[in-house]
Amino acid sequence: MSILEILEFPDSRLRKKALPVTNVTEKEYDLAKQMLSSMYQAPGIGLAATQVNVHQRLIVCDVSEHQDSPLILINPVLKESFGSAESQEGCLSVPGFHETVTRASEILVAAIDEHGNPISKEADGLLAICIQHEMDHLDGKLFVDYLSSTKRQLIRKKLLKIQKLKD
Ligand code: K2U
Ligand code: ZN
């Protein structure tokens, strides 16, 4: 399974709003499997198609201890959210930075699974955070957008400097 390149902030392609998947085919399933391989290798517990420069509404998550409970959500829609939880978030597209973000503590998400079947998923804890984080990616939103503009600009400047050194 190939490892996909993950776009890094401030790449403007991370700001594109993903389009709904109109038909779930083998192509979408293969993409999801490649995203899961790339996520496990990073390592990470979530990944959105936007991050691998595919602008379709598809996310993957796996918060299990042994990385054996992959969740593929196509066209995810947040139906209900409850409570509030603060957590330290990072992002594979913003490597090396972690900041506190507040999100709903429990959610109910409607989506389509990799076989094209409608599903409804209740989540709390880290999975709820991960799904909300990934769904933000589909709308071109990053966790740094919850920070002050000063903090965001500082992270932007530092990442641009690191990226320039890699060139
Ligand atoms: O979207 C991504 O970049 C992957 C995110 C998913 C995530 C962010 C914040 C909170 C939960 C999930 C992470 O970078 S994956 C890295 C990671 C690994 C273990 C625990 C939390 C985050
Ligand atoms: Zn992220």
State the total count of DSSP E strands. 7
Largest pleated sheet? 5 strands, antiparallel
Residue runs with pLDDT of under 50 for 5 or more positions: none
Gyration radius over CA: 15 Å
Assembly annotation: single chain
What share of the residues lie within helices? 25-40%
- Percentage of residues in DSSP E strands: 25-35%
The number of helical elements comes to: 3
Structural class: alpha+beta
Mean pLDDT: 98
> Main sheet: which strands, in order across?
1-2-3-6-7
- The global form is globular
Bound molecules: ligand K2U, zinc ion
Distance between the termini: 27 Å
Task: Give, in order, the helices and strands.
Answer: HEEEEEEEHH
Describe this protein with a few key phrases:
167 residues, alpha+beta, five-stranded antiparallel β-sheet, 3 helices, 7 strands, globular, binds ligand K2U, binds zinc ion
Descriptive notes:
The protein has 167 residues and is an alpha+beta fold. Helix content is 29%, strand content 26%. It has helices spanning 26-41, 125-138, 149-166; strands at residues 46-48, 58-61, 71-82, 85-89, 99-103, 106-112, 118-124. The strands form 2 sheets. The protein has a 5-stranded antiparallel sheet with strand order 1-2-3-6-7. Strands 4-5 form a two-stranded antiparallel sheet. β6 and β7 (118-124) form a beta hairpin. The relative contact order is 0.19. The mean pLDDT is 98. The structure holds ligand K2U and zinc ion. Residues 91-93, 133, 137 line the site of zinc ion. Residues 44-48, 89-93, 129-130, 133-134, 137 line the site of ligand K2U.
